[in-house]
């Protein structure tokens, strides 16, 4: 049997005891001896107080309907097929006066089934038209499983919660993507 | 308690009801206190979180909620289980816990039985739980349960020895197996002629105390000695197939045993229900004694659970080697040293 490392054992016990004291008595100065664990703990008591997620947290997928061209790339790339898109071809007025009438795809339905979604973010990566974004919003649970199929209107609402992109590195020359508002 | 009961002249059934209530309180209160104070709160604080906060102020009613939850659960018996033994096993484990407290002194007259072989009986009865654990492992008709049961049996037997040997040092120093006698010996003891605080055997039997606590940890199958219930290998060992009330009984048994062992350690090493400067025969100690013992028990419990929440699990062979090659030789040396000092002084 290997010799037990006594110093390591005591270090471990000191660390757990230190954490206990840090959580139980977080106050400094004269109030040190008043236990207030709710301030010392790093956790958040969720239903009573809201967590503030990191700005790039993967909370929910938001949609900018105007940018969607019904190209179906997101639907096909989704590993568990939780995106449902329907669209139709329609005529749009020409870009310049006297030009030809354009054919565009109009979006009829854009639903994401969050009961299936596993938040892999491939749809966000693959979208070439800046239509799908991550939002840190997280309060959208439903009492019924079927109600987790959220429709286009709801996805558009979440677009307002999408934070602006930040530069990957401070002082970098690379152009920062803009979120379409 | 006998003398106390005779003094107020209760009839036999009244005395019996009182005794039953007393033993229930002595088992349930420490178990509940340990679970709430240490398992729920202390562990949470050590992990920088709050633990249960919803049921009652600061989650104090969480225990009732847990009991209610377990009572609601379906009582599942595996198809190929040995039904009678399967039902019996948790009660054997719990019974050994209850019987542990029979010899526990709470005050000069507050005890259930004052036996001359008190500590011997307590240690003997604590081994009975091994049988319950083995039965549970065998009767579940599950390979994980069986492996867990055998591991538990091997571990409990291995750590029973250092437990007993650590106590022998105390017994030699006190000169009696009677737990009241051991309390009295500590109260009346002197440290180099200074008798102010008595002589809690913690000071002279520090090695024994440490060995006793380590062995207790293993007897309770708590981390770092939780190989029999190692969930990553064998689900939960011998409790794998238990659910509902029977699981709850195992759970209560585990923490009530923790309480009982902490109380025994407090009696053997910290002076039991006695406090310095208060006479041993003082009637006030019949009321204050249980509280003093409870406070000392919580102190020992803090040590046990502090270790529990700090260290990772031993491997099975390390666990056995630690008992046979390390703890037992040291406790034997401790006994020899105690004998020499007993004769020399």
In short:
With 181 residues, chain A is α+β, with helices and mostly antiparallel strands.
3D structure, described in words:
The complex is a heterodimer of chains A (181) and B (345). Chain A has 181 residues and is an alpha+beta fold. Chain A folds into two domains: 6-40, no CATH class; 60-161, Alpha-Beta Plaits. Chain A is 22% helix and 18% strand. Chain A has a three-stranded antiparallel sheet. A two-stranded antiparallel ribbon of chain A has the order 1-4. Chain A is elongated. The termini of chain A are far apart. Chain B is an all-alpha fold. Chain B starts with a helix and ends with a helix. The mean pLDDT of chain B is 84. Classes of the chains: A alpha+beta (181), B mainly alpha (345). At the A-B interface, α1 and α2 of A face α2, α13 and α14 of B.
Shape of chain B: globular
Structural class of chain B: mainly alpha
CATH names the topology of the largest domain in chain A as Alpha-Beta Plaits
Distance linking N and C termini of chain B: 35 Å
**What about the largest sheet of chain B?**
none
The run of helices and strands of chain A is HHEHEEHEEH
Summarize the largest interface: chains and residue counts: A-B, 20 and 19 residues
Short key terms for the protein model shown above:
heterodimer, A: 181 residues, alpha+beta, Alpha-Beta Plaits, three-stranded antiparallel sheet, two-stranded antiparallel ribbon, 5 helices, B: 345 residues, mainly alpha, 69% helix, 0% strand, globular
SSE blueprint and pairings:
The complex is a heterodimer of chains A (181) and B (345).
Chain A: H1 6-24, H2 37-40, E1 60-63, H3 73-77, E2 83-92, E3 102-113, H4 122-126, E4 132-135, E5 149-150, H5 152-158
Antiparallel strand pairs in A: 1-4, 2-3, 3-5
Chain B: H1 2-8, H2 12-46, H3 62-72, H4 83-100, H5 118-126, H6 128-139, H7 143-174, H8 179-188, H9 201-204, H10 206-219, H11 231-234, H12 244-269, H13 285-310, H14 316-344
Helix pairs in contact in B: 2-12, 2-13, 3-12, 4-5, 4-6, 4-12, 6-7, 7-10, 7-14, 10-12, 10-13, 10-14, 12-13
């Amino acid at each position: 049997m290997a010799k037990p490392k006594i110093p390591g054992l005591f270090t471990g016990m000191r660390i757990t005891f230190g954490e206990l004291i840090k959580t139980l008595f977080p106050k400094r100065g004269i109030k040190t001896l008043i236990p207030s664990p709710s301030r010392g703990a790093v956790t958040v008591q969720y239903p009573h107080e809201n967590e503030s997620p990191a700005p790039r947290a993967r909370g929910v997928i938001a949609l900018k309907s105007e940018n969607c061209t019904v190209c179906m790339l997101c639907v096909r790339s989704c590993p568990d097929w939780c995106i449902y898109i329907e669209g139709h071809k329609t005529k749009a007025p020409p870009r310049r006066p006297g030009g030809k009438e354009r054919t565009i795809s109009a979006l009829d339905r854009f639903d994401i089934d969050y009961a299936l979604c596993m938040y892999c973010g491939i749809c966000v990566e693959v979208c070439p038209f800046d239509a799908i974004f991550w939002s840190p919003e997280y309060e959208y649970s439903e009492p019924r499983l079927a109600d987790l199929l959220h429709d286009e209107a709801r996805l558009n609402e979440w677009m307002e919660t999408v934070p602006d992109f930040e530069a990957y590195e401070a002082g970098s020359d690379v152009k920062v993507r803009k979120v379409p508002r | 308690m006998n003398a106390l009961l005779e003094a107020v002249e209760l009839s036999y059934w009244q005395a019996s009801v009182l005794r039953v209530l007393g033993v229930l309180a002595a088992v349930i209160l420490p178990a509940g206190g340990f679970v709430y104070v240490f398992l729920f709160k202390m562990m949470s604080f050590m992990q920088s979180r709050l633990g249960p906060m919803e049921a009652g102020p600061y989650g104090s009613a969480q225990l009732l909620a847990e009991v209610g939850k377990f009572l609601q659960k379906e009582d599942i018996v595996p198809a190929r289980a040995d039904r009678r033994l399967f039902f019996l096993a948790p009660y054997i484990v719990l019974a050994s816990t209850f019987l542990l407290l029979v010899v526990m002194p709470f005050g000069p007259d507050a005890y259930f039985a004052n036996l001359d072989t008190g500590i011997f009986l307590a240690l003997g009865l604590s081994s009975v739980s091994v049988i319950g654990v083995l039965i549970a492992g065998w009767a579940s008709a599950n390979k994980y349960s069986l492996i867990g049961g055998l591991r538990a049996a091997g571990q409990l037997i291995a750590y029973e020895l250092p437990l007993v040997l650590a106590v022998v040092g105390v017994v030699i120093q006190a000169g009696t197996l009677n737990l009241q006698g051991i309390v009295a010996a500590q109260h009346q003891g002197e440290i180099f002629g200074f008798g102010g605080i008595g002589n809690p055997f913690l000071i002279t039997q520090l090695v024994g105390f440490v060995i006793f606590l380590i062995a207790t940890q293993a007897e309770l199958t708590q981390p770092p000695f939780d190989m029999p219930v190692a969930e990553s290998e064998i689900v939960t060992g011998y409790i794998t197939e238990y659910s509902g009330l029977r699981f709850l009984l195992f759970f209560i048994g585990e923490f009530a045993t923790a309480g009982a062992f902490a109380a025994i350690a407090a009696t053997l090493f910290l002076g039991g229900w006695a406090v310095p400067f208060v006479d041993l025969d003082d009637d006030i100690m019949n009321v204050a004694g249980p509280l003093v013992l409870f406070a000392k028990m919580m102190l020992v419990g803090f040590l046990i659970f502090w270790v529990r929440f700090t260290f990772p699990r031993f491997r099975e062979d390390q666990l056995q080697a630690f008992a046979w090659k390390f703890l037992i030789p040291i406790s034997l040396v401790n006994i020899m040293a105690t004998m020499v000092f007993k004769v020399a002084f």
